[in-house]
Amino acid sequence: MIAIDMPLTQAYLKGLVQIDSVNPGLVPGGAGEGEVAAWLARTCRELGLDVQLQETEAGRPNVLACWPGHGRGRSLLLTGHTDVVGTENMPGDPFDGRVEQGRLYGRGALDMKGGLAAILSAVAALRGDGFQPEGDIWLGFVTDEEYLSIGTDALVQQVHADAAILTEPTGLQVCVAHKGFAWLTITTHGLAAHGSLYEVGVDAVTHMGRVLNALEQLNREVFPRRAHPLLGRPSAHASLIRGGLGWSTYPDGCTLQVEHRLLPDEDGAAMVKLWEQVLGDLTAADPQFKAEVKLDFSRPGYEIERDAPVVGVLHQAHQTVIGVEPEYAGLYAWLDSAILGRAGIPTIIYGPGGEGMHAAVEYVELDDVYRCAAVLAETTRAWTGV
Length: 386
Fold this sequence. Notes:
The chain is of the alpha+beta class and 386 residues long. It is built from nine helices and 17 strands. It has helices at 6-17, 34-46, 109-128, 150-155, 204-222, 268-285, 309-322, 337-342, 366-384, and strands at 50-57, 60-67, 76-81, 99-100, 103-105, 137-142, 164-166, 174-178, 180-189, 235-243, 253-262, 290-299, 302-303, 328-331, 347-349, 354-355, 363-365. Strand 1 (50-57) and strand 2 (60-67) form a beta hairpin.
């Protein structure tokens, strides 16, 4: 079994966490991924890898590093995102990377710089062991996963691997499925009039109340009819609502933004059709009711077959390193693996554990990072070595 350098791994992790890489798409004025990309590029060059920067937006590059094989084996992509969410309400310095009782704290420690450190550590261990890959080993450190995933959209235009491991935090469970999402805007239309003119005014906000009732009915009666063994049922919630013109005016419009969480076989277009049917039924019941729905953004879910070759190789590596068979899981969140999978790269999700993703206190378990690195090293050796 390949030995992992734990002090080096912790140094990688601390160096990553201490760099502010808040996504500017989420937080105006956020630092972005430029500085952490420069750090990663330098570190990958120190590991002897071929490195290129791939601009996704100005000052926000992907880092694509390659350890070329001899051309006779399977290629593997080890990947994760470099951006983090905002730091509002976090106590102290959110980027201090302090270590307490076997945990490293800071924004992004769990989501997902622990996984990035495990990738670097695995490659360092393979280098130190004298490993020579037959297939190419790619490292893809991408931007913007926390918002629109422009980083992975760009990566798949340039990297075509036979399989990928996305090191999002899974608590060392093997994640083989995750949900997708769809953002929709529903608009109800009324007729503005003085508040005293009840025979003239049409209240768009009240009409939106019927939409909210329908949303509740979908969650209570319709969505539970479908379920996935690892992901449960689909769901939807009201995210934002806006409407009204003033105290003494009938509102002529109201907008509701709805987020759907989708099973792997669902998509945003299906949710639009669902709402068109709901709004059609409400219109049939009341001719004054007028509304429409539009799809703002959507990402499909993803599922890899349990018998996919990369799953079997990682399963064996986990068993070798940890000493027990891995647990399999699904994640309710959306991940970049959906983009990779639909680009023809079978992808498995496997990473360390901890607590506090997007929360005021975030940490990653250091032992998990070390063990994740060891599993990645064993998987990479088995996958690309022959």
